[in-house]
Write a structure and sequence with these properties.
single chain; alpha/beta; Rossmann fold; five-stranded mixed beta sheet; four-stranded parallel beta sheet; 8 helices; 9 strands
């Protein structure tokens, strides 16, 4: 990842933070999204990761500050307000802050209208591809969290999405952490109508492929229609830029706001 200062000498950076994945498809999609944001952003854009890949976010922040950055807006490419968003990343920002460096931090992306529009299109495309008429269900499958507020966020998003696409029944579940799991849903429900399964993920990865595998191996696979995950898209780029523009200052030691 190129971290060098752009030729116009700007000091205000945007740092896009991905989760990090060992999956090559997921890394390609993340880098494609970074490139798309970089192509339209008004200032320099760098990228980092929460885990697995390098640079990790703390190392990227230190490197940018050492290169002369005076302001860094950190945009986590996450959908919900789970542990990474409200604990891990804020701790990393506070740990590397230094006097004279302004750090801003953005909200999760799930509630942006452009993300919702993209999700709606993914589901409608699956409905058209499988020639589904009326009377279908929708399952929204996310990574998951032990936090009740994240379950409420995903559930509310699923309900709204189901209404937007005309689903007669809507459910949500998880593929990594939390209940119900997709396995639970497949084992515990008799699927009598077509069901569109929508992976609520920004990028491809191990978990989106696990969802695809579980759907394909299900006894009800003929009635399950797998939609595409969100993926790199101009609407996602718009949501990321909006989040960066709306980001607020980070509070560090003694209540100081950067």
């Amino acid at each position: 990842m190129v971290m060098s200062r752009t030729t116009n000498g700007q000091d205000n950076w945007v740092l896009l933070v991905g989760h990090g994945t060992r999956d090559a498809d997921g890394e390609r999609e993340f880098q494609a999204c970074v490139a798309a944001v970089r192509a339209v952003a008004k200032g320099p854009v760098a990228a980092a990761y929460i885990e697995i890949r390098k640079p990790l976010v703390a190392d990227a922040l230190i490197r940018l500050a050492d290169q002369g950055a005076r302001s860094i807006t950190v945009v986590p490419l996450v959908l919900t307000s789970g542990r990474h968003w409200d604990e891990d990343l804020p701790q990393a920002l506070r740990a590397v802050w230094r006097p004279g460096l302004r750090l801003c931090y953005s909200r999760p992306l799930l509630h942006d209208e452009a993300v919702f529009a993209l999700a709606r299109e993914r589901v409608r495309t699956a409905i058209a591809r499988h020639q589904i008429g009326g009377g279908f269900g929708l399952w929204v499958i996310a990574r998951g969290s032990h936090r009740a507020e994240v379950d409420r966020e995903v559930g509310a998003f699923a309900d709204r999405l189901g209404q937007a696409v005309g689903a007669v029944r809507t459910g949500h579940g998880y593929v990594s952490v939390g209940k119900p799991t997709l396995e639970d849903m497949l084992a515990g429900r008799r699927v009598v109508e077509p069901v569109v399964v929508f992976p609520l993920f920004l990028f491809a990865g191990v978990l989106t492929k696990r969802i695809a595998s579980l759907v394909a191996r299900s006894a009800a696979h003929e009635r399950l229609c797998l939609a595409a995950h969100l993926g790199p898209d101009e609407r996602l780029v718009r949501a990321i830029l909006r989040a960066a523009n709306e980001a607020g200052p980070v509070t560090v030691a003694n209540g100081t706001r950067t």
